[in-house]
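> forwarded from #structure-qc
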């Protein structure tokens, strides 16, 4: 068993942890009693309140703003292969209850009580992202526990994301178990997809919008659809499969659009799907100048607000992209507008949609509100886990 050192909190700084949160910020630590410079990144710690009363076991990175993260509130359980195995079994039991096929996010960090760890499942291939020094130090135990619980053919470590920089971790992609296939296979909402196994964004796919994509398919029959920021077709191809007359897909990545074309063929809808390579803002302007109109527009941009300091610029980007989309809608159109920016509150996006519609002298009503799927569960004490939002809007003339 690894040595565990106490991390003492300042007075009254334990309240958020007692309420269920899992993070300890560096300014909450009593650095006189437990100096941060005595710890190395990834050390196991026993977090105590200012009186020394136990709160939970976790790990620390003294160089990070989030200096410690809890993994257990039981004095007897620390981060090790046994705890990882237990957590994976609990996470798996939920996903198997929810989804008939093995395609889902298996582990969603803090919401599965494994902060710093994300695991996506693509059948017998697992794509793993480790974002903290604490979890990085237990990489071999993570692989062993996943192998024991899931028995996959392949485990890929997709540790090539910028958030690792905050923890002082290197960027790399490697195959930790088995051999990586050329493509991962995905089955979602009755459609089949392929994505590159060792490249592409994040873990290779975005399962979080699964329910919103399913709902969007109910709005497209016999209509002209535009999918903006289409990536590999997760929104656009189901629209074609579910009866859309035409689907146009915009993305800046030629590689993603090549895979989208392959996915369209895989689902026998290549004749309905047209790709447009280019910057989304410029592409929408060009379509407007060409007097194009669409009955349904699917708008799922990347996070325009990644940090608090990006809020002002990001809000303007959300306003602009939604205005450009509304200007391309037919007289009685549907706009599905989404955001994965945690720092864009749900009400703020709704306000942007309303103000933009009024600026264009259009009426807008909300038909549905969407959120992340249940394989991305929200921890009610950790607002940061509730990040995804989608609005299904009917936009008509005033």
């Amino acid at each position: 068993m690894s040595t565990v050192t106490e991390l003492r909190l300042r007075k009254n700084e334990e309240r958020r942890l007692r309420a269920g949160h899992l993070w300890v910020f560096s300014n909450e630590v009593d650095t006189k009693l437990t100096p941060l410079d005595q710890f190395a990144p990834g050390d196991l710690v026993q977090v105590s309140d200012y009186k020394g009363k136990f709160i939970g076991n976790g790990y620390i990175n003294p160089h990070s703003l989030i200096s410690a993260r809890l993994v257990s509130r039981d004095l007897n359980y620390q981060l090790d292969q046994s705890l990882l195995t237990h957590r994976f079994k609990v996470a798996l039991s939920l996903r198997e209850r929810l989804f008939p096929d093995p395609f889902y996010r298996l582990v969603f960090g803090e919401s599965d009580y494994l902060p710093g760890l994300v695991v996506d499942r693509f059948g017998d291939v697992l794509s793993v992202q480790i974002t903290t020094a604490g979890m990085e130090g237990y990489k071999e135990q993570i692989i062993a526990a996943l192998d024991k619980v899931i028995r996959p053919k392949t485990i890929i470590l997709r540790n090539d994301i910028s958030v690792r920089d905050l923890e002082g971790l290197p960027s790399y992609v490697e195959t930790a178990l088995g051999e990586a296939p050329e493509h991962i296979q995905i089955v979602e909402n009755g459609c089949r997809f392929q994505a590159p196994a060792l490249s592409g964004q994040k873990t290779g796919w975005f399962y979080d919008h699964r329910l919103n994509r399913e709902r969007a398919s109910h709005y497209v029959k016999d209509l002209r659809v535009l999918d903006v920021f289409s990536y590999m077709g997760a929104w656009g191809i189901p629209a074609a499969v579910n009866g859309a007359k035409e689907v146009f897909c915009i993305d800046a990545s030629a590689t993603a659009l090549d895979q989208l074309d392959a996915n369209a063929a895989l689902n026998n809808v290549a004749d309905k799907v047209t790709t447009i390579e280019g910057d989304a803002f410029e592409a929408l302007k060009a379509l407007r100048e060409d007097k194009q109109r669409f009955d349904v527009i699917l708008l799922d941009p990347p996070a325009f607000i990644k940090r608090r300091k990006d809020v002002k610029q990001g809000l303007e980007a959300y306003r602009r992209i939604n205005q450009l989309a509304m200007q391309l809608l037919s007289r009685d159109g549907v706009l599905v507008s989404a955001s994965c920016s945690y720092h864009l509150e749900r009400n703020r996006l709704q306000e942007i949609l309303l103000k933009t519609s009024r600026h264009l002298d259009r009426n807008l009503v909300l038909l549905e509100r969407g959120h992340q799927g249940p394989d991305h569960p929200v921890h009610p004490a950790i607002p940061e886990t509730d990040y995804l939002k989608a609005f299904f809007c009917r936009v008509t003339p005033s």
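QC bot note: The chain has a mean pLDDT of 96. The radius of gyration is 23 Å.
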